[in-house]
Amino acid sequence: MVVTHPGRMITNLETGTRIDEVAAGIYRICTPLDVIPGGFTFNSYLIADDEPLLFHTGYRKLFPITLEAIGKVVPVSKLRWIGGSHFEGDEYGALNDILAAAPEATPFGSEIGVLTSLNDFAARPARGFGDGEEFSIGSRRMSWLYTPHVPHGWDCGILFDLSTRTLLCGDLFTQPGANMPPVTESEVLTASEGMRGMMDYYAHATSTSAVLERLASLQPSMLACQHGSAYRGDSALLIRELATTIESGNTELSERTRVVTA
Ligand SMILES: [Fe+2]
Ligand SMILES: [Fe+2]
User: Which residues neighbour ligand 1 (ion) by CB within 5 Å?
Assistant: First the structure.
């Protein structure tokens, strides 16, 4: 398969959509949108391999823009896997449009996601991956991790590229802002906690710490966030700091609740 390596480029001057290779063969397609004050970015990740994989389709309304960007790396018709973390517009909105342009592609998500939404929404039958299930896309293996309610949605799961140890972590570490570098080596927890303070996008699940500890134990080399920069550095440390921050917030909350209800 012919793959061009664009390195980094703006693919649409009007929207400011850009594409950057953030790890070997992993391309971040980023479109900023004015949805909150200060702006916000929406990322899809395209993994170029024998069976090219797209993680997050982007909004349906952005389909032509996303399509244009994908085509800079691989012919869209060659896509074989199209998936997302959980069923929302920015994760799956353009799924059917992209499936129409990629006749050999299989939509995928968690087993619960397929049961509750994907097999109803998708134009073709979807593949539901079980927790820990691995699959090959050519030269690399991907592992699906079921992360119910972390950060939200009981269908939530994320994808781990075992060859580059990149964790395609969806909405974890969501950072606000429009002009972020594609990759940062500065911690992204402060920014994502700022976002969580503004909009509490985490489900209040009892299993959050255990799920995060499991992700940390993978020792990812990169957190490929859906909103904001991808983080390269000690991801395990950052994930554990996130768990501690959430836990201490939950303790405060339950203490306040105890006082109110006493
Ligand atoms: Fe989400
Ligand atoms: Fe999202």
Answer: 88, 171
Residue 32 scores a pLDDT above 70 = yes
Residues linked to residue 168 through DSSP beta bridges, in sequence order: 159, 224
Q: Are 239 and 222 in contact (CB under 8 A)?
A: no
Nearest ligand to the CA atom of 152: 1
* pLDDT tens string 173-226: 999 999 899 999 999 999 999 999 999 999 999 999 999 999 999 999 999 999
What are the backbone dihedrals phi and psi of residue 115, each rounded to the nearest 5 degrees, phi first?
A: -65, -45
Task: Find out whether 155 and 113 touch, Cβ atoms under 8 Å.
Answer: yes
- Indicate the Cα dihedral angle 138, 141, 145, 150, nearest 10°: -80
> Average pLDDT, stretch 13-26?
97
CA of 152 relative to ligand 1 center, distance in Å: 6
Q: In this structure, how many other beta carbons lie within 10 angstroms of the beta carbon of residue 162?
A: 13
Which ligand does the CA of 151 lie closest to?
1
Measure 207 CA to ligand 1 centroid, in angstroms: 18
Of all ligands present, the nearest one to the C-alpha of 88 is: 1
- Residue 196 parent element (H or E): helix 189-198
